[in-house]
Design goal:
Helix content is about 20%, strand content about 35%. The protein is an alpha+beta fold. A four-stranded antiparallel β-sheet has the order 1-4-2-3, covered by helices on one side. Strands 5-6 form a two-stranded antiparallel ribbon. Strand 5 and strand 6 form a beta hairpin.
């Protein structure tokens, strides 16, 4: 099971995504992650544990990205780890995906 959120708009995406993930945390609390699109560059943050662990990794991020995706994970396949946390990317770090289930 998982929680998935996406934001594209005029506001800064990071606070919208974090608030959304907190509301979805009951759907997955083993790990969480976000990817932000800013100036044609995607930055990814992932953490094992609850959303507060992800917030620690984000620190005082000054991101002004207006687009991003977020995910909470409840591990049903594979252990809770940063490697298994979403978003996942292609080898070149150009495409990032979030999904529910096994692909």
């Amino acid at each position: 099971m998982c929680g998935i959120i996406c934001y594209v708009g005029q506001q800064a995406a990071l606070p919208v995504l974090i608030e959304g993930l907190k509301r979805l945390e009951y759907r997955g609390y083993d790990s969480a992650g976000i990817a932000l699109l800013e100036d044609a560059k995607i930055t990814r943050f992932r953490a094992v544990g609850k959303i507060r662990e992800l917030e620690k990794d984000l620190g005082e991020s000054s991101s002004t990205a207006q687009a991003g995706i977020g995910h909470t994970r409840w591990a049903t396949h594979g252990k809770p780890s940063v490697e298994n946390a979403h978003p996942h990317s292609d080898c070149g770090g150009r495409i990032f995906v979030i999904h529910n289930g096994i692909i």
